[in-house]
Give the backbone structure.
Amino acid sequence: MKTSLTHKVLQILKGKCPQCGEGDIYETKYKTFLHIPKMKDRCEVCHYDFNGEPGYFLGAMYVSYGMAVLEGIIAFLIASSFIKEFSGLALASIVVGVIVVFSIPNFKFSRIIWMYIFPYKL
């Protein structure tokens, strides 16, 4: 059964299993913003292995880097378009602040995106 791109994006945003689309990838015990998410070992529905082989998630760093660059560019464009009096240091501080604030969600979603792009098969 083929699923639409919109459905896949919704599954990624909800953190669902790339194989069955039903099980959660991350444990949701803690809901604080600064909590580093803990990934489950297997899907509780289809028993898909979320960890893969050693080094499987090295490529997710590139996805996270791309997300951080995009967020930084958007923050720069928004800050520089609304307030013209900002100095270069103030703009750089805003961009770095945005990247730091979104670093933990980037960690989580980059791994999920990586699993959807390159599903791990035994």
Notes: The chain has one domain: 5-117. The chain is about 50% helix and 0% strand. The helical segments are 5-14, 60-82, 88-101, 103-117. The mean pLDDT is 86.
